[in-house]
Design brief:
Blueprint (H helix, E strand, L loop, with lengths): L9 E5 L10 H6 L21 H4 L55 E9 L19 H6 L4 H13 L5 E6 L7 E12 L11 E6 L15 E9 L9 E9 L2 E16 L12 E11 H15 L10 E4 L4 E4 L5 H6 L3 H20 L12 E19 L5
Parallel strand pairs: 5-12
Antiparallel strand pairs: 1-6, 1-8, 2-3, 2-12, 3-4, 4-5, 4-6, 6-7, 7-8, 8-9, 9-12, 10-11
Length: 398
Amino acid sequence: MGDYKPYLFVLALAIAACGNNPKSSDDVVTNNSTNNSNNSNNIDVNNANTNNANNVNNANNRHTNNGPGCSEVGGSSLSTPRTNHEPPRCSDECPPPACNESIDTIDWRFASVVSSFELLNDAENAHDYTGDDEPDNMFGPSVLQTLRIADQNTQIQAMIEDGSYVLVLHYRGLDELSGGEYLLGFWRGEWDGIEELSAQGGNPILVDSSSSDPACQDCAWPAYYVGDSILAVNQVSSGYYSRLPLPMVVFGSMLEVPLMGATIAADVVVENTSVEGGIGLANGRIGGVVRAADFFRTLNEFADENCKCLDLAGPLTSWNTETRSGTCNGTADGDACRAEGKEDCALLVDACPVVMARGSVALDVDTDGDETPDGWSMATKFTAYGAVVTGITPPPTP
């Protein structure tokens, strides 16, 4: 990759407290005001202030959208006032207008493809999600360490480099590289006629239409995105809602866990960025919150689909959102899976009690405003090369 020039451009996508005036990078990431509990533009999991638990119910008055009894406010077409930080979806009563538009109508002009991704085991590159002015990452050391985080990073990177895991960043609404506002969509894809990614950009990618919101087939609204993002010269701005796919490899199997309230920042690699070749990124950081309920639901879905050998009577895990505690299914038969050669399923059963025990006591972020933590802070690093979307692939046949 060419040398990056962080002071020429800064790409910043932060769902953080901003009031009516964008703050500096330090303000947005680590040092927001401690008195923003009544500010209607704050979301609890991203504010670096001491009033996290109070922000969530005041955060949802900015965007509504077209639909029965709906009106559109703001430039990014985010929808539906909410009582928590769930992002707008096509299943909402007032869905985003793009839910009624075909994926074929999207202007794919500016895009990137993730070229490296690392789950972090410490908080060195993390953001503050608990309001103590200290970086937070409880998911890495408490949960992922149990699931062999080092092996996960090696396997994720191998899948990126051989094209079996392709994640496209699309800058919807960005008109020019000199700067502007946009919605950052995350789309799965596949290489189009190349054998490896090029750091110089121009990587041809086919976007997978099944990355659309699951409530609409082949529509223009992505299942994962960050809203109200800004590309500007040495400036950071804020979004309001997000839902990102967090890739994990659990004992050899790729999973995607929803990462909520994401804060993203990266430097644009100017010499590897162009209108024709896409946007190159360096020094990327993604922070966010993994809700325990989402994580254990993902494990249950994996086991249900891939581990019939466990002969489960019910789900693999049971998580109580009221008590913030859970249990593992005592009927799971790991030995039966080993006998069938499904070691990943057996290892998951072995790890389940440890993950449950360590994860339950490590919860550090309140995402629903009840003053009780129900999620883990999370930190990752990434880079991306410029990409050119050359077409759309149909969703897989059911």
